[in-house]
Amino acid sequence: MLIEVRPVARLRGPKAVDVAGPLTELLDVLKGSDVDLAKVRVVCDWIQYKHNFRGVVDVRQIAPGTPDEELEIAVDLRRTGEGSLAAETTALLAGKGDPAGRVWLDTWSPGSEGCMWAFNRLYWLYLQLWEKATGHEYESTLPGGSSDATNSGSVRELIADLVKSWDDLAQRQSLPDELYVVELGVGNGNQAKAWLDEFRTVDQENGRGYYRRLHYLMCDYSPHVLDIARTTVGDHGDHVSSLVLDATTPTTALGFLRYKVFLVYISNVYDNLPCDEVVNIGGQPFRVDTRAYLTAESAAEISESTGVPVGELPGLVQKLLQIGPELLAEAMPTCFAGTDAAVDFWRRTWQGLQRAERFVPLPGLDSYAITPALSGEMLRPLLDAYGDVRINVNNGAVASFADTLPLLHPFGRLVCHDLFITDVGQSRTGFRGPGKYDGSVVNWVNGPLLAHIGSRKGMDVRFAPFAHREGTNITTMTAQVRD
After folding, report:
1. Is this prediction's pTM over 0.85?
2. Which mean pLDDT values do the consecutive 10-residue runs of the chain (483 residues) have?
3. Distance of alpha carbon 416 from its chain centroid, rounded?
4. What's the sign of the alpha-carbon dihedral 265, 268, 273, 277?
């Protein structure tokens, strides 16, 4: 048996977490079971997200259905005081992680293909309805209640670097007439307004006339978000355009700007894109497959509120994800009195949504595709260097990053503020998602993987702590053509 305690920073100090109590309780259950203890791994996390997709304890099959099948028992140390750890573990072991009463909402699939991410897409498509139901804008759910991209110090620093590069090109008579800046994931437009207001002021002070030549493109997946953002930056008139696009494939809409963009500006986007996970155990890579479910208690509560039998909830959830709450209310008026009732069903289901996991062997990393264009071989340097480790693949972020680089002018740069790990070892000492932010998903982003991919494409990728707000977990990534 192997026992791994990941939140090592919480083992010391006046508020040190109690590990001995939960582990003793867990070991007593295992000793009394018929499980082969030589094939058990116990992993203890501290899940910092108040809302997440995990139970207090979970049992995962490793290489299910093979002679080498093992079990991983995952414990959230933050919540071991909730309920009976022994009773829950016993029930899970009896069904090898599939206890009676769970209402499954989808089938086993790689994490990025699970319905958790379908809910995430639903949130951005129907954000206006969600905000109406909650009574607050989504940005207020971010740590600190706002994006770090609106920080005035950060904006001034970014503009100063950009203007310097334009000055250098202008002296060589190499500066294009049209100066393009692209923002992916504009939120409510506040960060675009902060940037544009500051840029206009700087340009008025130095008299370069760059503002007259500026084209700022706001891009987002959500039409509702873009509508709000356009109003926010209304006083910048013809200098701003907006495009609806999928952040994972920006060149689909922005291909006409290939090699022309001087700045791609991104904040809190990569952590909200579909993500697989890969685990290395004893030198063998495994893909983490997931399956969404509702507990018996959550399913019963939702069934009572809608009048839909528990057995029909999976079909109803899939219909919600396919057509959205407005059409769902029209299609099923006997269940929902109107759109507000359908949104209530959506929110209740999201609140109760949990995710089971199992580890499926990968015959080789080259058999796994991070994106259609990038093989899992890109993961080898990360997995080989750290032994037994579980890492986020961040398929959506990788796709977005790789597809954005061709847009950059030879003197352009990509600047991204987000939740990055900057060393794979950080995945061994803390929980890196997924968590729930309001109605969407948050995941830490695998910085070393992006740096490795960028290097293969001739880019210099660097990470630095966000310098303009104390206590933040945000890191700034900068990518530009290697000198």
Report:
1. yes
2. 94 93 96 95 95 95 94 96 90 78 95 97 95 86 57 86 96 97 93 95 94 97 91 94 95 96 96 97 96 96 95 97 98 95 98 97 95 96 92 98 97 96 94 94 97 96 84 91 86
3. 14
4. positive
